[in-house]
Amino acid sequence: MRFRAKIVDIGCLNHFTRVISTIAKLAKTCTLRLTVEKLYFILSDKVANGGVSMWCELNQGNVFDEYQMEGVAVESNEIYLELTPENLSRALKAAQNAKAVKIKLTNKQCPCLTVVMELPSLSSSSRIVTHDIPVGVIPRKLWNDFKEPTVPDFDVSIYLPVVKTMKSVVERMKNLSNSIVIEANQNGEMNLKIETDLVSVTTHFKELGNPPWESEDGSQGSARDRDSESMAEARIDIKRLLQLLAGQQVNPTKALCNIVSKRIVHFILLHEDVSLQYFIPALA
Which intervals of the chain are annotated as region Disordered (predicted)? Predict the structure, then answer.
């Protein structure tokens, strides 16, 4: 089992750092899945038990100048690691002026992701700084616990307003309640609502648009058949929502959410080569 990668391009390094910073704000620990083509960051708390889950993927070819990996076996050429993303985020932030950054899987009393930074110095020779980030190697028999989540059979799918705008609205609302109701319809309308014994506050968004979804037979479909004016809603933990909105270091070019009434809200954020899915279960 081997993994070794190198980043030279400063733009790619900054982009990768922003992705890892976003992951670090969403998960204390996560699973890093390495394949030949992609990197995946997975948080698989059981939604049925009230936990959030996350699935983020990016193409390694758009980040690394060199990339080599050999999995545990020929028939399963993948590596699964348990990782504290904040540790990797700190290491990468220290590398912002680096000439090159190497990341490799090592064994130093325990398995580690070793980040080696070549930093410029006043002398002719470069300074080399090394960070060893402990990781856990997840055995093959547990890999099925980290499968890509399926898109839920949603009632409404809608594009989100500008993430920064939505974040500022939710930040003000969090002082009023621990939960927030998201409701939307197939007519491009979304409402964010706070309802308590003392106060009721609603922010309305219109003309957001509804993404087309392709059905299994290849035809253009949408959410479940329902009146376009009819609202689907779910009450969710407001801190979970703010965590997602506030954690965005990579400004998504496209953001949408799918609502399964009174069950789950599924967010999808897309930015060039990165896609992030985030599932927040509804409160009872």
Answer: 208-229
Pick left, alpha or beta for residue 75 (phi over 0 → left; psi -120 to 50 → alpha; otherwise beta).
alpha
Task: Name the residue ranges covered by the structural domains of the chain.
Answer: 2-146, 156-281
Which CATH code of 2.40.128.280, 3.20.20.70, 1.20.1250.20, 3.70.10.10 fits the domain covering 2-146?
3.70.10.10
pLDDT in tens, 197-239: 888 999 999 999 998 865 544 444 445 555 678 899 999 999 9
pTM of the model: 0.87
CATH of span 156-281: 3.70.10.10
